């Protein structure tokens, strides 16, 4: 999973963002963006940086340890990352008192190591984004 990844395709992302109550302006910007994701690791601490022309977000984490995260759309969540059978599972717990929803982001890496498939799920809605490794 370590490396740099460029988004190749995206399905159902606008519906996913609507379910999270992301405003229409942010949804339009996000729908036109083609993110690059860079994942690095040093001494068991990982860094995941997502970059677009509009915004760059970085999270730093250790597998299995909860951390505070501010999502690209501004939600403040409690997140935990785990590694399950070739999939990096990113569990985001929203603040239910503020009406925020829980989300799960699953980044699955193919056996060849050149494709990362990101499935973003909230309620019964799943968006799929496919990334290719940059050489």
UniProtKB/TrEMBL annotation:
Domain Cytosolic fatty-acid binding proteins: 3-20
Keyword Transport part of the UniProt annotation: yes
Protein keywords: Lipid-binding, Transport
GO MF terms held by the record: fatty acid binding
SUPFAM superfamilies: Lipocalins (SSF50814)
Family: Belongs to the calycin superfamily. Fatty-acid binding protein (FABP) family.
Membrane in keyword set: no
Protein name: Fatty acid-binding protein 9
InterPro entries per UniProt: Calycin, Fatty_acid-bd, ILBP, Lipocln_cytosolic_FA-bd_dom
Top-level lineage group: Eukaryota
